[in-house]
Design a protein that fits this description.
mainly alpha, 3 strands
């Protein structure tokens, strides 16, 4: 197997390892979980106040029915917000907050920044990687250019700025 730290694009970038990518995704989901938890907590509190005080609904069955409807709407809103986060951050910055923290980014195969179209393709291919029970992600551990399934579909690499010392490892 080839050295994962092969210098590419005139000694500017190295391919990012599976583990570094995993850490960045974990950071993203920790951030998103925290924001989602806080949002859901205050949203739930607001809905409870709205149902009980403003609508004066005391029947627990009616509250449960209203809550089920709102929960389904929340699932749709969450998917839209999550999709928007990944597509916007990759399209605008080439990286999510997690990737920025570990100093990696997504680039096209010619090592130029990705655009929103590629970010969208990559995100929906990311969902395909998820649908394969994670096997799509594991490809990066064995691929010479460290590409996951969604990288191969979107024709992208995840890279970091490297030095000569990285190439000597």
């Amino acid at each position: 197997m080839e050295n994962p730290n092969i210098l590419v694009n005139h000694n500017k970038y190295c391919y990012t390892s599976f583990w570094k990518r995993s850490i960045s995704l974990t950071i993203d989901f920790l951030i998103l979980d925290l924001v989602g938890f806080l949002w859901m907590f205050f949203f739930s509190l607001g809905m409870l106040v709205f149902f009980r005080i403003i609508l004066k609904v005391d029947d627990i069955r009616k509250i449960n029915l209203l809550w089920e409807i709102i929960s389904q709407v929340w699932v749709i809103i969450s998917f839209i917000l999550l999709s928007s986060y990944f597509i916007f951050m990759h399209g605008r910055y080439g990286a999510t907050l997690g990737k920025m923290i570990v100093r990696i980014k997504v680039v096209k195969q010619d090592y130029t920044p990705i655009n929103y179209k590629i970010a969208m393709i990559r995100y929906f291919a990311f969902l395909l990687s998820c649908a394969t029970c994670g096997i799509g992600f594991l490809l990066a551990a064995f691929d010479s250019k460290k590409q996951s399934l969604h990288d191969k579909i979107a024709k992208t690499y995840v890279v970091y700025r490297c030095s000569i010392q990285d190439n000597e490892k």
